[in-house]
Write a structure and sequence with these properties.
- This protein is α+β, with helices and mostly antiparallel strands and 221 residues long.
- The chain folds into two domains: 91 residues, PNP-oxidase-like (Split barrel-like); 121 residues, no CATH class.
- The chain has ten helices and three strands.
- It has a three-stranded antiparallel β-sheet.
- α6 packs across α8 and α9 crosses α10.
- The chain is elongated, with a radius of gyration of 24 Å.
- The two termini are 31 Å apart.
- 26% of the residues are buried.
């Protein structure tokens, strides 16, 4: 049993020392309306079965404060069990979800476009050009925009290799941040790298958000 005084004290300690964990709990336990973003969050009390939180959501100049409750996976036997629970929650917060590749609209679009670029590059410029020439309506549209089917075919190949280089760079930065800033394990680090290599910015921005929270906390110390 945790007294009210200890519950509030643990809440302040958790909010100041574990911002990523608290952010994850706030995001998981708060209903966020369309267009709203979490701008601030804090644990007001730590109970045996979970945390009471105060979360501020904003959309432009409109802000609202909500109270929420995050239920622990396993109730605390005593306050000494809190560090292990926090580590478990932090790991979940920092680990990517493979389904984001299809549930995030922009990530899905980029994944499909990159797949088409990869296929076009695989069959080669000549085969692509011949395919377009075999479809007069498509050929006329492409010629009107890009000059000729061959020019468009070269553009497809060039775009593919550019995306490989850009996504590869983002994936490398993601792996570096995962190891140095988030300090997560090999499996989630590898998954971040793969997902960012496949979809680029939409996945990288999710990682950036976590890193910015961690860096913001570090700067405030």
């Amino acid at each position: 049993m945790i007294s009210d005084e200890d519950a509030k004290g643990l809440g302040k300690e958790l909010s100041s020392q574990h911002p990523l964990t608290v952010f994850g709990m706030a995001k998981a336990s708060t209903k966020i309306g369309a267009g709203f973003k979490i701008t601030s969050y804090a644990v007001t009390a730590v109970r045996a079965d979970g945390c009471e939180l105060r979360v501020t959501l904003c959309r432009g100049d409109l802000c609202e404060m909500k109270k929420s409750f995050y239920k622990f996976p396993t109730p605390l036997g005593s306050p000494k069990d809190l560090p292990d629970t926090i580590r478990q929650i932090r790991t979940n917060v920092c680990s990517p979800n493979l389904f984001w590749l299809v549930t995030d609209p922009l990530a899905l679009v980029i994944l499909v476009v990159c797949s088409l670029l990869a296929y076009g590059t695989y069959i080669g410029v000549e085969s692509m050009t011949d395919a377009f020439l075999g479809a007069p309506k498509v050929e006329r549209t492409i010629s009107a925009v890009f000059g000729s089917p061959q020019t468009f075919s070269y553009l497809v190949c060039g775009s593919f290799w550019f995306s490989v280089a850009a996504h590869g760079l983002e994936a490398s930065i993601a792996v570096y941040y995962s190891i140095t800033s988030l300090k997560i394990g090999v499996l989630p680090t590898t998954l971040w790298g793969i997902m960012i290599f496949l979809a680029g910015y939409p996945m990288f921005s999710r990682l950036q958000q976590l890193v910015s929270i961690e860096h913001g906390h570090a700067k405030s110390k």
